[in-house]
Amino acid sequence: MMTWSDQVAVVTGGARGIGRAIALHLAERGAAVCINYAAHGEAAEKVVQEVKAGGGRAIAARADVADFPAIQVMIAQAETQLGPVTILVNNAGVVYQATLDTFDHEQFERMRRVNADGIIHATRAVMAGMRARHYGRIVNVASIAAFGTALPGNAFYAATKAEAAILTKRFAMELGPQGITVNAVAPGFIRTDMTQGKRSAAEWEAIEKAIAERSIMGRIGEPADIANAVAFLAAPDSGWLTAQIITVDGGRMDYVGH
């Protein structure tokens, strides 16, 4: 029986926000962690130092998830330095907000290459090793946007996350017979650098209040809320749970058609 101390996890986009929380939480459970980043190397190294300060093992590895050869190199680096990869968390993502009037194809394509192609690339890079060992946990980070939340400007972002949701189910079908589970979490509105962006304190307070009022739990989410759900799906004893998408949104009530 595998234990947490036997695990090696790769977390894409693991330098900040939700990815950082996931990496730290998996390390606390006992997994060695490869923190992937594309642009925030200093932040990734800080996560590595936090893991090591807690007695864990971690490395930072730069790779754009939209670049398949780069992802293959990263996985090889993780396996050389940490051991066989048993957990993949496809967390890396970008947001491009637009309406039909302001749609820009190039920006949309870049977002799709990260949010959807990135899942394909990283999964393909780890699947041979997982198949050979007849064990693996793959967790994709989708979004409640994929299910039709009514936040303005998120239609095209939602489309890429809907792709992440269907890839989760289809990859679970392909990889399940080899002992690999594939699941996803669909976060609601989470407090991160990405969501706060360049908003002023007053603007952020108004947004937080408005979204909290749409939640059964009366608050927005924190990165740890998502990390907890990811750890559940990535756990060694979650081997009969696959092709599932867990919504982690505090009970949001503002869905189109509801």
Q: What keyword list fits this structure?
A:
258 residues; alpha/beta; Rossmann fold; seven-stranded parallel sheet; 8 helices; 7 strands; 46% helix; 14% strand; globular
Draw up the topology in text:
Layout: E1 8-11, H1 17-29, E2 32-37, H2 41-53, E3 58-62, H3 68-81, E4 87-90, H4 105-133, E5 136-141, H5 155-175, E6 180-187, H6 193-196, H7 201-212, H8 223-234, E7 245-248
Parallel strand pairs: 1-2, 1-4, 2-3, 4-5, 5-6, 6-7
Helix pairs in contact: 1-2, 1-8, 3-4, 4-5
**Proportion of beta-strand residues:** 5-15%
Task: Quote the distance from N terminus to C terminus.
Answer: 43 Å
pLDDT averaged residue by residue: 96
Major beta sheet, strand line-up = 3-2-1-4-5-6-7
Largest sheet: 7 strands, parallel
